[in-house]
Amino acid sequence: MPQTVGERREQLKAALIDAAEAIIARDGLVALRARDLAAAAGCALGAIYNAFEDLDSIVFAVNMRTLALIDHNLHGASRRESTTWGVNSADPDIARLIRLAVAYLDFAAKHGPRWRALFEHRLRDGQAVPPWYAAELNRIFLFVEEPLRAIRPQLAAAELAQLARVLFSAVHGIVSLGLEEKLGEIEPHRLREQTAAIVTAIARGLRDPASA
Predict the structure, then answer these.
(1) For the segment 124-156, what is each residue's pLDDT rounded down to a tens digit?
(2) Fewer CB atoms near the end CB (10 Å): N or C, the chain?
(3) What one-character DSSP code corresponds to residue 2?
(4) Is the pLDDT of residue 85 over 60?
């Protein structure tokens, strides 16, 4: 049975996302150009804009896949029982935060180009982040909120959400500086130890004595 127009369009969209994902994973976001993308997907240049409004829409689709991978890794780290990166086993909530931070670091180290694409993507003035993308991004912070809720149970939901973003930003800063070697070359195990140390220090400072 012949494909419908809608089916052919969805097939083209999938091929373009697959091709863009391969380009970004190999060479980074800077390498994503419409002409090269069309050649990789095996379509005409104009066909890209029959399937997507613009290249930004394709980048969002690729970044969604990256966020899903991070989500999967963080889920595994959150449920794991132990790690070797300076975890205080007597404090399971802090231990979970450390596992999450190290899992994030390890993902960034393994998938550098596609991880950087999450933060290098810049929208044109007036263009908003799609709600479905923002919702997926927020899922990452929920992993951090859960142990923080045990550490600071008195916080309101909005305060907890903000604190999770602050802690994520602190970890992201260490990961970015370490992987980009802005502070000199750091051996991978040292970077993991530093990440664990900063998370431990912050979490212990936040710990509500009544919840210990």
Answers:
(1) 888 889 999 999 999 999 999 999 999 999 999
(2) N
(3) P
(4) no
Residues 129, 86 contacting (CB under 8 angstroms): no
> 46 and 99 share a domain?
no
pLDDT of 20 strictly over 80: yes
**How many other C-beta atoms can be found within 10 angstroms of the C-beta atom of residue 130?**
14
Q: What is the mean pLDDT of residues 20-37?
A: 97
Q: Which of 118, 128, 129 is CA-nearest to residue 172?
A: 118
pTM above 0.85, yes or no: yes
**Do 133 and 64 contact (CB within 8 A), yes or no?**
yes
Which two three-digit tokens encode residue 28? Answer: 């980074």
Residue 112 identity:
G
Token pair in block for residue 129: 């982040």
CA dist 109 and 178 (Å) reads: 10
Per the document, the length of the chain is 212
Residues 92-127: pLDDT tens digits? 899 999 999 999 999 999 999 999 999 999 988 888
At 174, which amino acid appears? I
Phi, psi of 83 (to 5 degrees): -155, 170
Residue 135 · residue 60 · CB < 8 Å? no
Which CATH number characterizes residue 47's domain?
1.10.10
* Containing structural domain, residue 165: 54-211
Helical axes 5-27 vs 112-120, angle rounded to 10°: 110
